[in-house]
Amino acid sequence: MIIDILSGGVRGGTSLLFAGLGETISERAGVINLGTEGAMLVGALGGYAVTFHTGSPWLGVLGGAAAGALLALVHAVLVVSRGANQYASGLTLFFLALGLTALFGVDYVSRQITAFTPVKIPVLGDIPVVGPVLFDHDPLVYAGYVVVPLVAWVMFRTRAGLLLRSAGERADALGVNGYSVVAVRYAAVVSGGALAGIGGAHISIAYANSWFENMIAGRGFIAVSLVIFAMWHPVNVLLGAYLFGAALSLASVLQANGVDVNQFALNAIPFLMTLVVLTVLGKRTLRKAPDELLKVLETAKA
Amino acid sequence: MTGVAVGAPRRTAALTARTGTAARWLAACTAALVIFSAFILANDVDPLSVLGTIWTSVLTEPRQVEQILVRATPFALAALAVVVPGRAGLVNVGGEGQVIVGAVAAAGAGMWVGADAAPAVAVTVMVLAAVVAGGAWAGIAAALRLVGDVNEAVTTVLLNFVALYLMLFLILGSWRDDAAMGQATSPEIGPGAKLPLLGTSGVHVGIVVAVIAALVIWFAFTRTTWGFRLTVVGGNPEAARRAGLPVTVLLLSALVLGGVLAGLAGYVHLAGAEYKLRPTFGANIGYIGFLASWLARHRPLAVLVSAAAVAAIAITGNTLQISAGLPAASVNILMGLVLVAVLGWTSVRKADA
């Protein structure tokens, strides 16, 4: 059962991982996006619809990424170009996504798709414990293993990453050196949305293998919180995502093993856990926050 | 909120305030309607006939106008729950959870006093329970803010889900009404606990509560020391601290009062409209209230108008479902688009939060 929970954590955490990485990129540039929940929703539907029509879940991933990126683009326009309040804009986009996916999603409810299937990696998958936990999953889970170091490398070792972090730490310095803060932030928010869209697509075409209204059920909001206590570092995001993935999958694992527990009490666990971790880490995380983001987070310091 | 203008703030042409605002609003709403029509069209439904049906069925029928007012009541209170903390620069995205917790507490209190309790007793106990629960729920976020420096926008949103699962836990568990067929609900509140209707209309007295709340908050903001101090804290907390204002107490009071208002919204929705807790009880009241408060640019009296506007949109959902066969949740698109337009058109001037 422990192995089930750990393996479920990796599988269930993958959507949080992609969304969390996306949010990390966005927040590193100084933009918080509560619309991540919305980006995951449109990503889930976009991924499902494309998979349904093309028969290829890989194209579905692209569809999910495109849908998430489009929604995040609206956030970028409102927040970066129009100076709108970031929370208000994010929540607005969540609503927009709720409506859009309800309207365009009806046709896809209880339709069959050729979803991703678990691919066991030879040799590695046969290692006891580690094998089933890490190496017997759908391809998107493995993609997550690759994307984390990739994002970390881009963020900390490349010029693009330097520009991204400058936009979040000292936006005026970026401007002085002839770079456009606006362009950097657009790129960050939109690519963040694309990653959140992939996260959403993982839920519909690899995890649940179905589409239903409001299927993200708060995972996007968990992803946003995750980024804060991961202290804006991709590797911490990975650990946090799997931890919360485990909490999310706890309900189904326990039920599958015949343990009689109230499902709704279990459903609240990831959210409670997030609150507790945020509180315990509290001030320590904020010291690591990008300066420009702090202006958004600390509107009134108590 | 002060640090909103993250991008390079660009000055819009200083249109003369009144006509400029009206024109922007008109343009914003038209744009939203046009885009919404395009989406409807994409679903092979004629948008003009849908909009026509909405117009005749929602806005010209007295019954529907009453329905709009009934729906607007919790929206207005939930919007005020965002306005008050917003005055102090806090972002309360937790209206949804505070509404649910308020309703759960009210329902629990109603069961505790029993279905045949005297109306005065039932109402008093239920209102108190709702208000305390809503305030306490927001108080959790306030405490986390003050103790752990955790951003309240994030914590309140997480608490929404905890509240939702708490309610589901209860109504699918020990509170489940065995007499009710089908959908799991809590037992209906006693007849004495139901809010009376205004005259011969279908509108319950909750709307009076909402109007009074808006007036009181307007008065508090503009005519009391507390309101002034709150505004100072919202404008520049550091300056407020140096001036010797009790910043901590002010922030705490603003967020808790927000929770109290949201709890009240939960109460009036339960005692005036729903009478029992269903799995869909919250129905986004808190989130829609959040949007309504932004529509009203956080002005307490304008909230009454914006709440009626979003209620009209919400009611439209039923019409959409019945007459065009589109999912009721589709109206969230319209809700979102109006907000996108409003945020996009009006934010640059000055974001007052």
Automatic annotation (TrEMBL), chain A:
One function term, GO molecular function aspect: transmembrane transporter activity
Pfam families to which the protein is assigned, alphabetical: BPD_transp_2
Keyword Cytoplasm on entry: no
CDD domains (UniProt xref): TM_PBP1_transp_TpRbsC_like (cd06580)
Tagged with keyword Transmembrane: yes
InterPro entries named among the record's database cross-references: ABC_transp_permease
Transmembrane portions of the chain: 58-80, 87-106, 139-156, 221-244, 264-281
Compartments where found: Cell membrane
Primary location group: membrane
Keywords: Cell membrane, Membrane, Transmembrane, Transmembrane helix
One Gene Ontology cellular component annotation held by this UniProt entry: plasma membrane
Domain of life of the organism encoding this protein: Bacteria
Membrane topology classification: Multi-pass membrane protein
Alphabetized PANTHER family for the sequence: ABC TRANSPORTER PERMEASE PROTEIN (PTHR43370:SF2), SUGAR ABC TRANSPORTER INTEGRAL MEMBRANE PROTEIN-RELATED (PTHR43370)
UniProt name for this protein: ABC transporter permease
UniProtKB/TrEMBL annotation, chain B:
GO CC annotation, single: plasma membrane
Annotated compartments: Cell membrane
CDD domains: TM_PBP1_transp_TpRbsC_like
Annotated transmembrane regions: 21-42, 68-86, 98-115, 121-144, 156-175, 195-222, 243-268, 280-296, 301-320, 326-348
InterPro entries according to UniProt: ABC_transp_permease (IPR001851)
GO molecular function, one term: transmembrane transporter activity
Keyword vocabulary terms for this entry: Cell membrane, Membrane, Transmembrane, Transmembrane helix
Membrane topology: Multi-pass membrane protein
Protein name from the UniProt record: ABC transporter permease
Organism listed in the record: Cellulomonas aerilata
